[in-house]
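Anyone up for a design puzzle?
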């Protein structure tokens, strides 16, 4: 066989896929486009480039060099966006700290990632005070603040963020280096044990940006993200780079709005005032916003919203659609950078009834470009696309994490057989739409029959008196396991266990769900435990209600 490798001309430029290259388009094509932080700060893309250079100069003056790790503790802000670029563009690693973890878990991630410098919002100084003196690798701290610090602190700072930027040059010559260098690290919000470190290279982040942007940009209309949109994340920037969307928004040169801490009044105010048209969040955030009194007076009909992180119920989907929101599912996980699929509806589907549309919009969706996603059995053989045959979702794509930081055994399990194992159980239809039926660890086995907790949650959520629901399996001597529904009731709609049972019986009598669900128990609760990123914490719920 002949060697068809293209020879490299010695003088040709060796183009590396580096994060710095994402900045080329907006700086050239949209220099006067705005970036907004809450109601207090706004500037242009031209200034964004200058501030990224200033931050790079400031960090270099502090001693940050290629290979170092710079950690950030902040709410969603323009500062965070600048760190998304400046830190990895220096050849350093950006560690986005999950500020919702416990102090001990935060300390673990700081030490495990071997952070060299820490940029911290003044609101989180009480957390640092609790772990001060036990951070073995941190050499210096930079203060991020919106308001003056009111509580005393013993932390010695190298400087305040804005002051350091003001003292630094607005130009910086970012060097080229190997695109496979690590750019970011963050820690999965595991429900057992300490969080696991996940990491991504420049190449992976750039390819994820391009692949996801093409999936969102080639839609005929529904769920399309384009250069005239106004973008606001409602997924924390510490969580998988806010699903990678800030990189896409920057490459497109769109107006960006960063809300800081998530306060319902302010989120809705920003949607209205800044005319936000594109966001993403977990179902609990959407639920919270739609229930807020201010939501009733705001026009939401221009808002496109990706829902991910947990299954979206048809009830929530229909409620959002009823307000004119173009809502649809996106799917991925921390280890996948994260986006793998979108549940876009085709033009002909837009002619369907809201109920029929919702059934598609709530699905896991279809693979985006460059993603090889399969539903397989235990021997990794692909299951038929018949919407019935169940298997685990496994994937290959150029942006998947190579493993877990300093954890070889867990990395091998993640990539067993050469495929990344998601742990999600699903079916796939003939059109390629995937529908997750459960997590492998959350499926309930009743008298030898598999019962999907997600399917049960969706059915119960359809009752008009249910505000939130989570279903878990509990041990049962007779049946092996028995489903328990934890239900939060709407204040204006009292419910009994019989009401829920009668509601479910309609589905079992129609053959729409396994009849084993008649064994369901119901418990009414005031709230349902969630993880730090708003997902239902079923491990905690099983421990709590065992």
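Challenge accepted. My sequence:
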């Amino acid at each position: 066989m002949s060697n068809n490798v293209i020879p490299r001309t010695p003088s040709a430029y060796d183009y590396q896929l580096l994060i710095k290259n994402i900045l080329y388009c907006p700086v050239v094509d949209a220099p006067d486009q705005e970036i907004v932080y809450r109601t207090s700060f706004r500037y242009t893309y031209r200034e964004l480039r200058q501030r990224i250079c200033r931050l790079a100069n400031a960090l270099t003056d502090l001693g940050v060099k290629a290979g170092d790790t710079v950690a950030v503790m902040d709410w969603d802000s323009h500062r965070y966006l600048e760190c998304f670029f400046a830190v990895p563009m220096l050849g350093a690693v950006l560690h986005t700290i999950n500020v919702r973890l416990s102090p001990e878990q935060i300390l673990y991630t700081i030490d495990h990632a071997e952070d060299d410098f820490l940029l911290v919002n003044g609101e989180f100084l009480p957390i640092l005070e609790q772990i001060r003196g036990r951070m073995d690798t941190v050499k210096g701290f930079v203060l991020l603040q919106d308001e003056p610090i009111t509580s005393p602190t013993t932390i010695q700072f190298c400087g305040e963020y804005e002051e350091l930027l003001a003292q630094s040059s607005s130009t910086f010559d970012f060097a080229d280096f190997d695109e496979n260098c690590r750019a970011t690290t963050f820690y999965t919000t595991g429900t057992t044990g300490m969080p696991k470190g996940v990491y991504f290279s420049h190449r992976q982040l750039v390819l994820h940006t391009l692949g996801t942007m093409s999936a969102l940009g080639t839609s005929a209309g529904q769920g399309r993200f384009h250069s005239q949109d106004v973008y606001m994340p409602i997924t924390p920037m510490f969580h998988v780079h806010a699903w990678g969307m800030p990189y896409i928004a920057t490459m497109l040169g769109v107006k960006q709005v960063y809300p800081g801490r998530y306060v319902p009044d302010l989120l809705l105010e920003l949607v209205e005032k800044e005319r936000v048209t594109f966001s993403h969040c977990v179902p609990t955030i959407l639920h919270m916003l739609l229930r807020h009194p201010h939501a009733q007076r705001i026009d939401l009909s221009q808002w496109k919203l990706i829902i991910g992180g947990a299954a979206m119920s048809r009830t929530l989907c229909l409620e959002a659609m009823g307000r004119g929101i173009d809502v649809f599912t996106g799917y991925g996980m921390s280890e996948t950078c994260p986006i793998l699929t979108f549940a876009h509806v085709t033009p002909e589907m837009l002619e369907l009834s809201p109920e029929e549309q919702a059934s598609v919009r709530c699905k896991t969706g279809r693979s985006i470009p460059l993603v090889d996603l399969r539903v397989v059995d235990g021997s990794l053989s692909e299951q038929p696309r018949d919407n019935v045959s169940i298997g685990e979702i496994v994937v290959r794509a150029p942006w998947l994490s190579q493993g877990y930081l300093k954890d070889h055994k867990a990395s091998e399990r993640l990539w067993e057989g050469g495929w990344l194992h998601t742990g999600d159980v699903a079916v796939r239809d003939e059109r390629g739409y995937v529908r997750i039926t459960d997590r492998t660890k959350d499926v309930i086995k009743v008298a030898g029959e598999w019962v999907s907790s997600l399917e049960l949650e969706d059915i119960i959520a359809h009752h008009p008196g249910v505000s939130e629901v989570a279903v878990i399996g509990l041990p049962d001597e007779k049946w092996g396991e028995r489903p328990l529904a934890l239900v939060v009731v709407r204040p204006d709609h009292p419910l009994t266990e019989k009401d829920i049972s009668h509601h479910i019986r309609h589905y079992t009598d129609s053959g729409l769900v396994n009849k084993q669900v008649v064994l369901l128990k119901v418990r009414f609760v005031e709230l349902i435990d969630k993880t730090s990123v708003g997902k239902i914490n079923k491990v905690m719920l099983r421990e709590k209600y065992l």
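A detail worth pointing out: Residues 444 and 451 are 5 Å apart (CA to CA).
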